[in-house]
Design goal:
about 180 residues; alpha+beta
């Protein structure tokens, strides 16, 4: 019987681990933190209560190296974190919200990647009748607008740096050093 809820994330094995601090495998996903969808690195856990429904391999978009694609995924994830999109388990119920499935769908679209030919979002998650995901996919411009709005609201307070943002900056600085 199909699971009522599913959780999507990227399981990344870079071609050039030296560009990522030597990491040969890591996960990029998103979950709820204080009611907001926040990107997470290496926080995906396997539980006896969870069943892996499907796994697909994304192709690196044309014109990009593996490292550029992974950095694009991190960059888009960081934008979503900065935009502070409200988390909802079922984002199709309330427009302007997201969950891990919308996060993955959005990153796939905004990095120029796509699901393999013949694969649909319904193949990844049996309860997805609306593609992609169960909610709105956010374009880069929508994320930028939300992030700008959030920045304007937070100008009076000291900007905080999330654990994800710190990790992303470490990876980015290592990538720059290796060029």
């Amino acid at each position: 019987s199909p699971q009522l809820f599913t959780h999507s994330y990227f399981d990344i094995s870079p071609d050039n681990p030296q560009n990522f601090g030597g990491a040969t495998n890591f996960q990029l996903g998103a979950s709820k933190q204080n009611g907001i969808l926040q990107p997470r690195v290496n926080q995906e856990t396997v539980s006896a209560n969870l069943i892996e429904y499907s796994r697909v391999t994304l192709q690196t978009p044309k014109g990009m190296t593996d490292t550029q694609f992974i950095n694009a995924l991190f960059s888009e994830a960081d934008k979503i974190g900065q935009a502070q999109i409200p988390y909802k388990t079922l984002p199709n119920v309330q427009k302007g919200t997201a969950n891990s499935n919308v996060f993955v769908s959005t990153l796939i679209q905004n990095t120029g990647s796509s699901l393999p030919t013949g694969t649909s979002y319904g193949d990844l998650n049996p309860i997805y009748t609306q593609s992609p995901g169960l909610g709105q996919v956010y374009s880069s411009s929508e994320i930028q607008q939300r992030s700008q709005s959030q920045t304007n609201q937070n100008k009076a307070s000291q900007p905080r740096q999330s654990a994800f943002h710190s990790f992303f900056n470490k990876i980015r600085s290592r990538f720059r050093k290796s060029k």
